[in-house]
Amino acid sequence: MTSRTFKYPSGAPVRHSEQQQQQKKRRKKMIIDRVSDGFSVLLDRDADLISPVQLWGFPGCRSPTEPLLSPGEPSSDSEYSWSDASVEAEGTHRSRYQGVRVKNTVKELIMRRKHLHTQVQQQLPADEECAVLQGRKREAESVCFSAVKRARAADGHTPMECVFSDCDLLEDLGALLAPSLSVGSVMESVCADAPPLYMQNTLPAVQNTLPAVQNTLPAAPPVSFFQWQIQQEDEKLSALSPAELMSRDEDGDTFLHIAVAQGRRALAFVLASRMVELGVLDLKEHNQQSALQVCVAADQHLIAQDLLSLGADPNTLDRWGRSPLHVCAEKGHSATMQAIQRCVQQSGRSLNLELVNYEGLTPLHTAVLAHNAVLQELSGHVTQCLVLLQKRKKLAECIATLLQMGAALGTRDSKSGRTALHMAAEQANVELLRLFLDQPDCCSIINARAFSGNTALHMASALQGRDAQLEAVRLLLRRGGDPSARNLENEQPAQLVNEGPLGDQVRRVLKGKSAPLRP
Hints:
Serine Threonine Protein Phosphatase 5, Tetratricopeptide repeat; 4 domains; elongated; 25 helices; two-stranded antiparallel ribbon; mainly alpha
């Protein structure tokens, strides 16, 4: 009987019989077969390779996180750690576990994996297959139509014009491709997962054909936003009868008056166009104001331009005898006055600039009096008011526009006989005095007399408490004002000067003892 010598971790030699060694081999073989069977079952179930994390779950396999032991210590991967109690009772010691034996090779496992994947694909339901085909179709469409979009963008279209739906792009592409290649064939080939070789061959042709197709289309005339609004309003008012068009509310306002007051230009244009056909464009409301006068009062210069182009009367008067120019001059609507000026010049119609209201004032008189009122209000403010400054500027623009249109500077008002120069001298309005004295006909009106016989120099000399009085007197004298002129009470300008330091300076200037300022 042969025997072998083994050593326990303590180092003591032990003799074993040959029968014990055979039992040990049989036990090892049984364990290895059991481990390999479990390993093959696991491979069959997952159809994939086993990672070290899965391997350590088998008996005799070390955990990947378990630290290695020293050679003298019993390890968890030895047979001693998983053998039964009978083996331990025999006093034997198992060697370290060195690995497992795999039944199936890696190649067989990969082939089995492919076979299972093919069976799963054949057993997919219809909805999943459609989803896969739709995904492939979208990929093919994105590849195909990205070049078409680039061709449209390169042809001068904006990016927003190149944004179309997939259906529109498919129809465009089907129309431009060969007759044999229709939209249906494109979809069928995509769904059949055919390689899109025709796309690579036809895309350059599509890019070259797109500009030619677009050039053959008739170019639509450009439509502005205002014209588009007119078309929309015209469609809405298509069923409006003439009786409804001329109907009024309790204040006598028609639809046109209300649209103009609200600033709805397109609606006002459509209503005015229909009222022109009926001959009632200048229909007036309870204050005897036409639609043109309402839009002038609201400072709607664009609507005023439209109404004048349609034939509105620019010389119509309201219940106070004011013309549209009177309203613009009173309120300082310089933009509306300039619009009236342009329309009258283009149409060639006559515009009466010397119409007087019921106060006997022309539009120029009204603008000068409004400018004097703003100037007087500004003198009472400690700080400058931006609103008043803006209004004064607009009133000055209205006066300059009236002079450009041909308003007479020497026209007198109906009540006192004053001219615009008299009215500016009454308030020592140096800004307007300079404007009037720079006019070509200023020499003929510099010594014009009012009904009281006073000249502009008389009125400027009689002022009291105005800081600009001295400058106004000097301007009048420099442009030809007569200091020896007498009014109806036989008074000269020097006799009307008030007492005080400022009055003394004005008096010296009038008597010629102080030379006037040079320009």
